[in-house]
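FAQ: What does the model actually see?

It sees only this:
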Amino acid sequence: MRIAVVGAGAIGCLFGGRLQRSGQSVLLIHHTRSVAADIEKKGIRIREPSRKVVRTRITTRTRLSKHDKPELVLITVKAYDTEGVASLLMKLAMHSVPVLSLQNGLGNVETLEARLGSDSIIAGTTTEAALTTGPGSVIHTGSGMTWVGELNGRHSERCLAIERAFRRAGFSTLISNNINGVLWAKAIVNSAINPISAIARVKNRDVLKTPQLREIASKVIDEGTAVACANGIALRPAPRRMFEKVLAMTSRNKSSMLQDIEAGRKTEIIQLNGSITRLGSQAGVSTPFNYLLTMLVLHLERSQSNP
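And it is asked to produce this:
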């Protein structure tokens, strides 16, 4: 399968590198010329949880072209970049090419749908954990589960093909007939891990082991669950159970939000806790913990960019 992976961060490199090694034809896209050139020259280096290091040469460019003719576009960019990617794909007239989002946060699928139409979009999410240590260099800090699904809930041939390709690459993968419920559950879990770890500057295991942090996370999960229910979302799997499992599997990981704060980058707080706060307000559900975390992380972003 010809796969274009748009976004060469930790998850993009992890999936792109493993898919390439398993026999797929992968094109990796990173918008920064120097980063793309570095990965093109040196390839991808993945240190697996077993501590084994694997290397993969992979074609890397700054832009996707209509001449590439991918059979699948895998989107792994930050949620705030989704609009730009959707616009680019629309200009390339790739309406018939399946587009799979493996991004954090809420609203990515809706943004892609608005530009490309619902027939092109496949939704997905993953609890694989990875840490970037440089261009194309990734530490796979925890194995997890990946879900994909059609927006209408049916089991399609294209989802089956993706499931086969992902499993062949070593990713535990399931096709969900309630992918929206999975996306919400994952977003709620991320909203309870990422900002807390970023504010406290701790690894995932400390959110689980520190009573005060765990208590805050529990309140955030309660709020997110209430907002989901008010919006008619059937959460699968249960966020609290998923929270425990994700933290256990990714105990050594730094959350993506903590990595962003440490690097002075913009975070996805608006697409996580900010979205839950906004949707809660619209539904009449109070979300004080999500609101507070949103404001605190936004303050961290500003203070990092303006020391």
